[in-house]
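Listing S7. Sequence submitted for prediction.
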Amino acid sequence: MDEVIKILTKKNKTIAVMESCTGGALANSITDIPGASEVFRFGAITYANEFKIKMGVDSQIIAKYSVYSPEVARDMSKTIATFADANYGVGITGKLNRVDRFNPSGDDSQVFISIYDQNQEKFYEFSLQVPYSSRKQNKDFIIREITKKLLTII
């Protein structure tokens, strides 16, 4: 993440994140870096669908595709970039090897990530299968993969 922050700073670009299953791990990894305040605009942890919707995620997208879908990750990334007026928005939704009794559909070990480049109006999307039984290890794995992807985008 050090390199991501250096590149964003050098290019005078900003980033914002809307996280669900990672519970703020991405925002934390960004703010662990000295100087991150120059590029980090906003972070939202939206575990509950209700708060994704309050932040601006389209409830019809959640209803149609389920909260655990690339479509919701996409809407999260664009919504947070727009909300925070950031160059890049990251949306993360999925499950870390756990059944969600409120949202039972979907693979219990799949995570959907979308990175939105607001300047180019372009989405970069991918999904991951979390490989560990530990939530902490899975969060670390997801953050590493997002960091690699950001380095190819920014």
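Caption to Listing S7: primary sequence and predicted structure tokens for the chain studied. The chain has a mean pLDDT of 95. The CA atoms of residues 8 and 154 lie 7 Å apart.
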